[in-house]
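> call design_seq(struct)
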């Protein structure tokens, strides 16, 4: 009974004898007085570990601060002195600590902590190295020990720099039977350290600019990394992600690996690939910081000072950080809801004299609480986290100093704002503010990077990688890719749409697939390439159905294998589109990561929502979460207690013992000089001061601190040793300044120990907060484990790399691969996990002839010619490197006249699907494709130093074209306006407001870039000029977009403003062929370009791109001076070419012509009713109602004029629905208008007889017809009826 009960309490094992094994373990773990005397007790301690079925629970017990776990680990390992001891003690310990469960992401922080404790055991690594233990270990033990070294060297810098660890790694590799030894040596750069600078030129020669061009890199020279500053290291894993002050101040060029490998110093190809991607991506982020610091004088927040330390326990984010407050900027309070400043994860610098002093990251940006944080009336406050211990201590000391003066400073600043300019009291406040500011440590606060949070997860993931699935294919050009091993020899195509065709992968027949399915030959070849290659490169020109092929492949893999699929897309729009394809095919085991989906269909598949619906975490995880939370609360209280001590002014006994306690311990001699005599021990009298009051214990301290001399009347009562009398008098004769300096030294000593404690507590708090964050994601991990298809953006995949790597999807599908940085794809790949899973199949679908990945630093791009090529995607690199690929060849998007442009320029083999030849012509225009040529200069044509461009004439013309097309009956979601420049985008958005009830709709990425433009002072507030939600867009929004942010999307009609119009031929990045390719391939039915052909032709590099395009358009007669418009009611009339924006409302005021009576010409109808509806029928209804209301308001107006207005705005409506609507109208006058319209436009309408039952209505309708169109078939009937 007793054993059974014990066993029930011991959930980790059901064996009755385990309580004996556990007893020694528990005794040593719980009892601090227990003693692990010898190896016998050490083995019993290890036996106790065996009783834990959950090794995660074991780690929690060892890490529990209430237990002696860490101490017992050191005791156990202290007995190691030989290879036998390692086999008997260390290897079993590592086996318990490092297993499949503890290597899961949720327990990885705890595992790393325990392994670091083992590593830090005094002399352990030294004993193993000195005794050549690794040479004597068994093969299994050597692999276990190598895995231990590899794990800690990946996680921590200290082991990577340790010579002993390097010696051990070399010994393991020399054995020849340790699988991970080579990877460990590559991680440590062991060979590179031994070879020194064999691959590169000596450091002394780096300034020699006379080196041959074929050898030197003019950006980095050939100097290897290391030694330029405190953050320049040979191993990229040792580099702090947030740059240091010394790094930003360094004038030497950073080491940047060339795409050619010319200056590569790493032998291992995988390590070299990871190193290159990390260094280039980080430089892209850091280079913009250098620029922002150089311009800090105009972009900084003044008088920034550290005023507090804040510990937040608000779920889900535990955090501890410094609070920085700065002065408000002139012009009133900032609109923090719109201003994208101090975003979470942004990097800030505290600067003086334009140079950084301290770097930090924003940990809290709170703008929702009135009067607090960013909305503090005394100036905005933000939470900032500093990384290094030195910065921690300096910041704490500054906080203590500033706290004493900040309240008075803020109070005076608030009073100053209420005092008039001529008020004498203003001078008093100014002087008080200056005094307070002089006493505080103040800086200029510069936000050096708003987007660094997007780089950090990628960079951290790259630092944690030391292996790469499919590495042979990704690093070695020309290596033939094999069929993925997980695919069966025969696969079945989906039954739906493809008839369940059976395919033999060893003898794949493209012709059979084309015959038996709807796939064309290029699609069938792409399918073959995908199913027979481990690394797939499928190129798809615009409109060729890249998403369709990707979804089809995912569907085939899902139906024929058990592998899970991770779909990675560059944009949320593309990701939603891909997952919706799979949903339509019947896949429901989908998980969508990230919270920026706009798809209603995917709302129930969001990871966060699915995780919340999961009941609870595992028992061991819950227990660990409770322990972490308890520890966090304890540390929080400790930090707050010390902060209160630090904020308390230094006194004799305060804070925490004050000067008295400090002097007793550190300077007992000086303490004697301050000790107040208390009289004889017999208590016959007491020494008293003035008025007979007993002297306080701090009486002499206060006298000395205020600069007073020793009270002579008290001297007889002092019991100072005669040998110290000389020092006593000298001490009391110190000047006030000398005393102040001495007090400051004592204060720094007293506060220093407290500062060290706070720094330690803050570091401990941050580590446990990170562990809590990871533990709380166990539910998400369980959701992912059961999913067949996981969708994430490239940024989302990097942020969630830990749980995605634990899931280890076998198939990775990357959409828009030509637009994705190589580093983003590498981090999406999952290496070997504890379960043995890894990525087996990489499918890259994209087009490298469209826009490349976005890069902030031009010097890193391919077009710069520096050879760094950061914007060359993995997709492009592999294709240009000669890897086998497939290309889709039939486009289903553009009408032939439009596709001919990109066919002649970029895709000579591109064919049109027959469906695109049947597209309807654009209504109201005589041509479907036009280049509207003008010579109106762009805004500021003579200036070339602005960050963005605009052209007011083009903006007005494009808006009028949009208005005209809307009047033809097009829905707002059928139109899009594109432009290459944000300045022009903003101008078009503002001008669209001239069309009543119509707004501009922009993407999230365009919103961010517009806000950034506004923050730089280059624009006016765009916040009220656009809509973002899908519901608003459907209702009344016209999409406006920059070209770069519209890649992958399409529209029926595209209106394009090219902006550039100048005599110099400057066209900016419109000279880039890839951007022009995207520009010309977005439209389905019609495309209208507005630009200056002379500027495009005279551009240096751009001429080669634009001249052939313009020649092709000119030959076809598609280059005009205006928009050739036609009236839909009179299509045989000559088109009217509208060349100026004002001509649109003069010649086509309501979208039609002016052929009407004088009364009709003066008719006023609110045509904007047409612009915010979803279909033509509703347009007609609204127009009729508006016209009837107008007639009621102005009875004297001609009815025929009102009817003519109705005729103009209706266009081609759904007459059947209009008839139904008319039948429901009781008002006779309204019915007359409706019947007039029906009779005029649909003489053969099937229900006409029913519509003419009302004699009065029919008579009026026929009279209307006879008057407006005398030649109409109903004219005779109208005359007879009127008679």
């Amino acid at each position: 009974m007793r054993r059974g009960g014990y066993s029930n309490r011991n959930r980790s094992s059901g064996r009755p004898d385990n309580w004996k094994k556990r007893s020694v373990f528990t005794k040593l773990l719980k009892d601090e007085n227990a003693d692990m005397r010898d190896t016998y007790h050490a083995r019993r301690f290890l036996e106790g570990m065996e009783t834990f079925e959950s090794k995660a629970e074991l780690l929690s017990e060892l890490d529990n601060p209430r237990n002696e776990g860490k101490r017992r680990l050191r005791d156990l390992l202290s007995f190691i002195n030989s290879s036998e001891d390692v086999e008997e003690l260390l290897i079993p310990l590592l086996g318990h600590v490092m297993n499949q469960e503890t290597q899961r992401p949720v327990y990885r922080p705890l595992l790393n902590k325990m392994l670091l404790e083992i590593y830090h055991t005094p002399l352990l690594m030294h004993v193993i190295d000195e005794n050549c233990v690794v040479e004597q270990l068994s093969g299994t033990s050597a692999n276990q020990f190598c895995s231990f070294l590899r794990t800690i060297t990946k996680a921590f810098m200290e082991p990577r720099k340790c010579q002993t660890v390097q010696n051990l790694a070399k010994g393991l590799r020399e054995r020849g039977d340790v699988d991970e030894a080579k990877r460990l040596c590559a991680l440590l750069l062991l060979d590179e350290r031994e070879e020194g600078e064999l691959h590169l030129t000596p450091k002394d020669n780096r300034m020699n600019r006379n080196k041959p061009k074929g050898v030197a890199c003019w950006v980095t020279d050939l100097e290897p990394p290391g030694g330029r500053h405190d953050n320049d290291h040979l191993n990229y894993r040792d580099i702090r992600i947030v740059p240091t002050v010394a790094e930003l101040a360094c004038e030497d060029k950073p080491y940047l690996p060339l795409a050619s490998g010319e200056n590569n110093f790493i032998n291992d190809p995988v390590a070299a690939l990871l190193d290159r991607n990390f260094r280039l991506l980080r430089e892209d982020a850091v280079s913009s910081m250098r620029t922002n610091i150089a311009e800090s004088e105009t972009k900084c927040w003044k008088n920034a000072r550290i005023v507090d330390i804040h510990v937040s326990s608000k779920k889900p984010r535990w955090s501890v950080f410094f609070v920085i407050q700065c002065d408000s900027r002139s012009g009133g309070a900032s609109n923090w809801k719109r201003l994208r400043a101090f975003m979470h994860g942004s990097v800030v610098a505290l600067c003086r004299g334009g140079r950084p002093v301290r770097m930090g990251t924003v940990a809290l940006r709170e703008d929702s609480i009135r009067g607090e944080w960013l909305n503090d009336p005394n100036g905005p406050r933000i939470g900032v986290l500093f990384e290094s211990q030195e910065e921690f201590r300096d910041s704490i000391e500054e906080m203590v100093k500033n706290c004493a003066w900040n309240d008075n400073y803020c109070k005076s600043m608030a009073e100053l704002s209420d005092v008039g300019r001529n008020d004498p009291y203003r001078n008093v406040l100014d002087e008080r503010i200056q005094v307070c500011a002089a006493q505080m440590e103040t800086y200029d606060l510069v936000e050096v990077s708003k987007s660094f949070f997007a780089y950090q997860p990628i960079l951290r993931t790259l630092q944690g990688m030391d292996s790469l699935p499919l590495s042979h294919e990704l690093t070695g050009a020309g290596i033939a890719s094999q069929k993925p091993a997980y695919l069966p020899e025969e696969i079945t195509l989906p039954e739906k749409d493809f008839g369940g065709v059976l395919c033999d992968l060893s003898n794949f027949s493209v012709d059979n697939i084309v015959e038996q399915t709807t796939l064309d030959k290029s699609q069938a070849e792409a399918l073959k390439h995908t199913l027979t290659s481990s690394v797939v490169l499928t190129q798809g020109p615009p409109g060729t159905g890249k998403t369709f092929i990707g979804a089809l492949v995912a569907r085939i893999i899902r139906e024929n294998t058990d592998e899970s699929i991770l779909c990675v897309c560059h944009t949320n729009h593309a990701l939603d589109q891909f997952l919706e394809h799979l949903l339509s095919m019947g896949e429901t085991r989908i998980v969508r990561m990230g919270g920026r989906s706009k798809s209603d269909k995917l709302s129930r598949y969001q990871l966060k929502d699915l995780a919340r619906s999961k009941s609870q975490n595992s028992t061991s995880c819950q227990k660990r979460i409770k322990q972490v939370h308890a520890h966090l609360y304890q540390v929080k209280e400790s930090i707050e207690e010390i902060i209160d001590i630090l904020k308390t002014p230094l006194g004799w006994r305060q804070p925490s013992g004050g000067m008295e306690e400090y002097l007793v311990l550190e300077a007992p001699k000086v303490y004697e000089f301050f000790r107040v005599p208390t009289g004889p021990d017999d208590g016959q009298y007491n020494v008293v001061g003035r008025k007979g009051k007993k002297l306080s214990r701090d009486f002499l301290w206060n006298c000395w601190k205020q600069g007073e001399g020793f009270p002579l009347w008290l001297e007889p009562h002092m019991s100072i040793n005669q040998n110290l009398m000389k020092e006593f008098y000298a001490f009391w004769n110190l000047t006030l300044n000398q005393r102040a300096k001495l007090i400051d030294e004592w204060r720094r000593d007293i506060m220093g120990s407290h500062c060290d404690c706070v720094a330690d507590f803050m570091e401990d708090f941050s580590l446990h907060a990170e562990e809590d964050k990871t533990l709380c994601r166990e539910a998400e991990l369980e959701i992912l484990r059961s999913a067949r298809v996981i969708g994430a953006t490239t940024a989302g995949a990097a942020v969630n790399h830990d749980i995605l790597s634990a899931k280890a999807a076998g198939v990775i599908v990357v959409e828009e691969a030509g637009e994705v940085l190589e580093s983003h794809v590498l981090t999406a790949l999952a290496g070997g996990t504890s379960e043995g899973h890894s990525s087996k199949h990489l499918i890259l679908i994209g087009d490298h002839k469209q826009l490349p990945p976005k890069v902030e630093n031009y010097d890193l791009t391919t077009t710069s010619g520096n050879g760094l090529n950061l914007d060359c995607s993995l997709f492009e690199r592999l294709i240009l490197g000669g890897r086998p690929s497939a290309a889709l060849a039939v486009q289903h998007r553009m009408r032939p006249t439009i596709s001919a442009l990109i066919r002649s320029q970029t895709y000579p083999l591109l064919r049109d699907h027959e469906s695109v030849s049947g597209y309807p012509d654009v209504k109201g225009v005589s041509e479907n494709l036009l280049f509207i040529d003008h010579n109106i200069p762009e805004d500021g044509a003579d200036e070339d130093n602005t960050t963005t461009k605009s052209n007011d004439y083009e903006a007005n013309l494009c808006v009028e074209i949009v208005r005209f097309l809307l009047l033809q009956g097009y829905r707002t979601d059928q139109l899009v306006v594109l432009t290459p420049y944000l300045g022009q985008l903003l101008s078009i958005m503002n001008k669209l407001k001239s069309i009543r009830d119509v707004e501009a709709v922009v993407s999230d990425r365009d919103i961010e870039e517009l806000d950034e433009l506004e923050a730089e002072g280059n624009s006016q507030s765009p916040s009220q000029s656009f809509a973002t939600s899908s519901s608003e867009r459907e209702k009344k929004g016209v999409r406006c977009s920059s070209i770069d942010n519209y890649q992958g999307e399409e529209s029926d009609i595209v209106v394009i403003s090219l902006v550039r119009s100048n005599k110099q031929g400057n066209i900016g990045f419109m000279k880039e062929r890839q951007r022009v390719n995207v520009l010309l391939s977005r439209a389905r039915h019609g495309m209208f370009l507005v630009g200056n052909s002379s500027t495009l032709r005279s551009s240096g590099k751009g001429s080669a791109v634009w001249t052939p395009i313009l020649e092709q358009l000119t030959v076809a007669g598609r280059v005009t001076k205006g928009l050739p418009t036609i009236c839909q009611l009179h299509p045989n009339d000559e088109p009217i070419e509208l060349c100026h924006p004002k001509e649109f409302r003069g010649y086509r005021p309501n979208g039609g012509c002016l052929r009407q009576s004088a009364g009709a010409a003066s008719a006023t109808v609110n045509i904007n009713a047409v612009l915010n509806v979803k279909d033509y029928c509703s347009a007609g209804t609204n127009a009729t109602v508006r016209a009837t209301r107008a007639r009621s308001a102005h009875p004297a107006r001609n009815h025929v004029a009102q009817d003519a207005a109705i005729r103009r705005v209706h266009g081609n409506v759904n007459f059947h629905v209009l008839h139904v609507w008319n039948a429901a109208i009781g008002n006779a006058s309204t019915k007359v208008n409706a019947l007039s319209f029906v009779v005029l436009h649909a003489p053969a309408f099937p229900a006409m007889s029913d519509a003419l039952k009302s004699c009065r209505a029919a008579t009026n309708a026929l009279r209307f017809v006879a008057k407006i169109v005398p030649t109409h078939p109903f004219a005779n009937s109208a005359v007879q009826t009127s008679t």
